[in-house]
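Final report, closing paragraph on structural work. Over the funding period we assembled a curated collection of sequence-structure pairs, and we close with a single example.
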Amino acid sequence: MSLRNTNFAVVALLAICCFPLPAAEPAKSASPAPAVPDPRHISNGWDIPSEGYADQPYIVKTDDGAWLCVMTTGAGAEGAGGQHVVSMRSTDQGRTWEQIVPIEPGDGPEASYAVLLKVPGGRIYAFYNHNTDRVPEVKREDKGVYKRVDSLGHYVFKYSDDHGRTWSAQRYEVPIREFECDRNNVYGGKLRFFWNVGRPLILGDTAIMVIHKVGAMGDGFFSQSEGAFFTSKNILTERDPAKITFETLPDGDIGLRTPAGGGRVAEEQSIVKLSDGSLYCVYRTIDGWPTSAYSRDGGHTWTAPAYKTYTPGGRRVKHPRAANFAWNCSNGMFLYWFHNHGGRFVGELGAGGKDGRSPYDDRNPAWLMAGREVDTPEGKRIEWSQPEILLYDDDPYIRMSYPDLIEDGGKFYVTETQKNVGRVHEIPQPLLDSLFAQWDNRTVAKPGLVLDLPAGKSLPAEAPLPKLPPLNFRDNRRADHGAKDARAGFSLDLRLQLDSLAAGQTLLDSRDATGAGILVSTTESGTIAVTLHDGRQQASWDCDGGVLQAEKLHHVVITVDGGPKIITFVVDGVLCDGGDQRQFGWGRFSPTLRTPTGAATLKIAPAVKSLRIYSRALRTSEAVGNFHAGTE
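Its predicted structure, as stored:
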């Protein structure tokens, strides 16, 4: 089935232009009440000051209780001259910020992509790229050149001993060992390309940090990349920065790449630590799936890179060429940010965007999943929950990325940026609680349940259709009587058993004589689809192919989420992600689609064995809980 009256986000911007702000900005007042009645909408976040371009707003909590944010900023677009790294402090969990403090000046060499490491004594280190030699341009592998010079040069650090109020006048270089990809670049390794977005970790008495090596500049900007690491065994205690020592990992001269047969891009590595001291690393590719690996020896050696899966050896996670980060949580579990689709899908053109598309597209919405440790013969590994929508913007072309996670006072916060504005968002506690508890949830969701026809006896052929909320409506309080977005939704929860997967079977039908209403039916693809018709327009989306079997009892939850305007299917406790057939498992519907109200009566086919209707959009975790509640 195809989705009508909708546009998927298709944009390939490597830089976003914006209007400059003053280099030092006074603290902002707290944001007013949310303008959009949905905590997932990015406009409800608290702005982080910048000079215009705003990238990688990463945060550590200082020993005096403040939040210290480091950011790459500048008056121009991403990669423009004047790009530099700055910091700022907040004492109210990101609602307001003190003045911007330059770590490097805006009139110096390009300084970019800083990450923070706080050591036990309270000192904070900022690591970043620095174009110390003022290289004006770089050669591409296809004989062209790039004028953008923010991902090369020297990897350096400065430090602060006053919780980020000031930074050391001197910068210090981190010696990064040469790899094969460095020697093979167009400069023979005399000039190296690299950057970092990965958060450092403290592993016992050692700090481990990430570096993304680039072997070639060209198609897609970084046309070959791989992950490396560097550790320091004395940075946690050594007070003289000139005496800090570093070791580049992994052993050998090849970093973490894609699995055999994958593309040349393997970058933006993110690491977490497990309770047995192991490391887990996840990173982006252009293959449609992120890659992951484990290290049992502090990063010296790694398991063979493999595409990330929900469970060990299970279904692959889908993700485009965008930041996908994993974080340790204080409860011993993990959280993971990603975008839940296959990028430029397998079989399409290469990464060059010659068809007008790009693997950098579709970073909206952002999804979140929880992880927990499991024991395997190879040691501790992580299995992941089904994901939830964390953040979205109404404009599907808007992109959000480069997040960070902060825990403070029992609450979780996340930062993100669209490259011209960074924000802080408090993650709704119900969303977090349901993610962390998803594996153990065996209860049926009750809030919003407006029709409950349980299994155990034949369902009626017809039932009164409960009133469902409007998705949008005329706002008579407006002078022009225009539309108001209700941000509402609904869910259909049914257990069904089909004798065959033949197309054209009607399962649920509330359509009236004009065609307005809701239809759930089988398709020619062996799937089931929901069609929503409001008398003016319609939208349709179906579940993934191959997830249904004839004569088998299945549990299906169809959710129409009027916040991000997305339809999802959860089949037997698994959120559809498109599988190997399509890039997306979820589909958008038009923001002007009204409530698909049709007949007052809902027709129910004998294949439907139970039915629940909710007057709100269920979270993925609730749909999974409903499935598990019916299997015991």
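The longest strand covers residues 206-218. Residues 110 and 517 are 57 Å apart (CA to CA). We thank the funder for supporting this effort.
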